[in-house]
Amino acid sequence: MEPPFILLILFLVFIIAPSKAQQNITLGSVLTTQGVNSSWISPSGFAFGFRLIDANSSYILAVWFDKTIDKTLAWYAKTNTEVPDLVVVPSGSRLQFSSNGLSLLDPGGHEIWNPQVTAAAYASMLDTGNFVLAGADGSTKWGTFESPADTILPTQGPLSEVQLYSRLTSTGYSNGRFLLQVKDGNIEFDLVAVPSGNVYNSYWNPNTAGNGSQLFFSATGRVYFTLQDGAEINITSAIMGSMVDYYQRATLDPDGVFRQYVYPKNEAAKKWNNIGWTIVDFIPRNICEIITSTDGSGACGFNSFCSFNWNRNDTVDCQCPPHYSFIDQVQKYKGCKADFQPQSCDLDEETMIDQFDLIPMNGVDWPLADYEHFTSIGMDDCKKLCLTDCFCAVVVFNNGNCWKKKLPMSNGRMDSRVDRTLFLKVPKNNNSQSQLNGNSIKWKKDKKYWILGSSLLLGSFFLVCILLVLFITFRNYFATKSKKTDLPKQSSSTGGLPLKSFTYEELHEATGGFSEEVGRGGSGVVYKGQLQDQLGTHVAVKKIDRVLPDIEKEFAVEVQTIGWTFHKNLVRLLGFCNEGAERLLVYEFMPNGSLTGFLFDTIRPSWHLRVQFALGVARGLLYLHEECSTQIIHCDIKPQNILLDDNFTAKISDFGLAKLLRMDQTQTNTGIRGTRGYVAPEWFKNIAITAKVDVYSFGVILLEIVCCRRNVEKDMTNDDRDILTDWANDCYRSGRIDLLVEGDEEASFDIKRVQRFLAVALWCIQEDPAMRPTMHKVTQMLDGAVEIAMPPDPASYISSLQ
């Protein structure tokens, strides 16, 4: 029986072997644009071959991650010119491998591309993502790692001469507007003119010229470059561990940001990351601020402005000002154009003022577009100077200074730290096209037709008014007759933010009879539901247990006030139910639960993700305290009230409910608002409560985010570490910040930011509310925009407020 058994094993090996990914490619092998021989694949899931790039049957020669959902490209062939550009071939082309290397031939047999290699014996698609041509002795004759396109991979390097050109768009592969290059012992990020390739100014440069720097991507996920003296300077510092668990890449993206990405290979890694490629680090930190170039348009196109979305995959968002639109919605780098005729220089001043207006824009600036500057002038005179100047597109007034800006405007940016108001010149109405050209003077002279037209228009206006009054009268009459005993339903739209009034029956049906509980707190129980609308919107429905008896009539008004708040770091209120004794609030559903489930799980979320959590919560509180129409003090900031959407964006929930709830609903047994461990000390004192109570709670949460542990741990074996706020303060004072992130390699490699976050947290938890920073100052300190002084020791403060 033994020989047949051995033969069976050999037979199984024989039939299974061809299904394994190919490693060595022999001389004479050919790839075609279509069919089974279009690529060679490595065991780990990298592929080398032809990729279709558009519907016109155009192909490129590329290396890609074959096991990821989108089969992301890691390399693609470029020309051997001074400014290398994409090599594109039509359907029917082929790639031949011979001892003279690779030869890319078009359907007619003409050679398009050849890496110029001799004495090649075999080729191999390595598990590192490097496709190599090797000699008989195994030495590498050529590899894709030697000539990267826009991406580098772990183990790639050292690279002493290299150029990474960004792609022009996310869907196109031609050279873009940004270049990372290592040259003459220096590394720098440059702006590039399209399509000439002319290099403009550098927007990131550590000034290491002549020091012999070499770029390297380590196997553990750190991108750095080394100097002649052995010093290492980090570009990115994310440490993701073994390449067995993660695919990794670092790419100069089309927006000019160099980002490091990871993609989990196994189920354990996917527990906290199930959304494909995730950004773990990037540079520069805010490209919208760092690019200010006299050449070119800046980070975005001319006449547009740039904002950096920290909580939306750290992306760059280019926007057009009001009454402007993108020249090309796909290729936004081309900039924005005015949706109206420019102001004619042939008009008199009175006509100019009549036809154009200046609208304010806060937090926006085009810093290099000034062409005239006036001093000791009033705002009205400043505005008039722009309105009567046909070249003026924007005017800025600040403390008696007046700056006029003209088109095209470059280096536009939007940021909360831009502390100036611009006034943008736009037509007074949308029908002023005919009035804005040089023929408007002739139009003014022909008053006979103007009077006739005006009369007809005025008559039509009065007729419409009469019909409108009749309509409103009849609507109110029938609405009154059908009015129930409970409060009337609110409009489905409030201030442009849809806020719907639901019936109890609608919400009962949407939640399946309130069957699936997803959360519970002091104010009530939360249930998952699905609306019966066209999209089948998933919602979270909160049943409020107890409402103050003296605000029954104000309930809808208060809810509508909450509905006015709209920020990416706040859970959106979609509607409410105010029927009989039932009070329910309908929120957008947050599929990834609360921050509690992530921070205190057995698997620690990445440091980069935790940084985004902290920044998101800070920006949400900043909006509630300082940026919405009415200041809102949350009073119960804690991880359970920080929810995560499908992109893991942190959003504050349960804000604005303090006015709706009975006083004891958010109390602990100490008789104070909030949750034990997160409450500010002034709740214990007979002093006024301000927004600084939220600042205190944020400080505690910030420490929990940094350390991935609860503030109060009852089961700690070390009594010195029971209370996180006390232990963190001790570590800070003793210079042992490393103990707080012990075992967290990512955070340890970003120890300067850990130190900055810790200092911010210690400022936030000061016992004296007056010593705590505002949330505006907190966000500035977190971003590194301002210096942080040494925080006082909270333990040494003896409060005089009794």
UniProtKB/TrEMBL annotation:
It catalyses: L-threonyl-[protein] + ATP = O-phospho-L-threonyl-[protein] + ADP + H(+); L-seryl-[protein] + ATP = O-phospho-L-seryl-[protein] + ADP + H(+). It is an enzyme of class 2 (transferase). Its EC number is 2.7.11.1. The keyword Cell inner membrane does not apply. Residues 512-786 form the Protein kinase domain. One of its GO terms (biological process) is response to other organism. PROSITE patterns: BULB_LECTIN, PROTEIN_KINASE_ATP, PROTEIN_KINASE_DOM, PROTEIN_KINASE_ST. It is found in: Membrane. This is non-specific serine/threonine protein kinase.
